[in-house]
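Q: Got a minute? One more chain.
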Amino acid sequence: MKPFRVLIKLSSAMVVPRQPLHLDALLSALRVARDEDKPGFDPSLIKDDIPLDRYHSPSGEWCFKGSAFRLIRHAPSFMWMLTGRADLPAIAEDRHSGFLRLRQNEVSTAGGPFKSTKTDLEVVLADVEAFGVGDIDAVRDMLSECKQIGARRGIAFGNIASVHIEEVAEQECRWQWRVLPFDANTRELDVEASYAIAGLRAPYWDRLTHVKVAIPVDL
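A: Always. Here it is, folded:
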């Protein structure tokens, strides 16, 4: 297990993450994707099978030694507006032909399946970097399968141009720039932290797994 830095260069704008996007979360998603077509597939059994070292706190709680991604901005972030609107003439034609069956006499764009939408996204032109401790060759192999990163990938945000991984000195590896166990030795890890309820391992969005954690104040 060696300390390393990952630099991901993007070929398109990226949606600015609302919550920290961790290196181990990305590797976990890639690991799960490898087996999702196998019989008896259970993501909970393989999500932690990734080539990163682990940090254990005094209580025995643990997290991966993989930092959150940090944006390397090429320009200030900006807002991107997305709108969605139903094609009412096409809906009328489909209903008349019998292709579309509707109980109501009128189509409502204020709610329901044909609701008009408007979404504002904060996007940025940037590259992203992260630090970790693990099997560098295995991490490189897994990241070679990653084509996009971040939210709204279906509309071409976060396209990856290249991935670079290099070994770094231990004192340069800031893997601890991440959500940490509640009783982590923050002085030893050289981080100033606040405390909250959040995910400690992937999937970070699953509130059923949220626990008390320490979060670096600059995260």
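A: The CA atoms of residues 140 and 184 lie 28 Å apart.
Q: Perfect, thanks.
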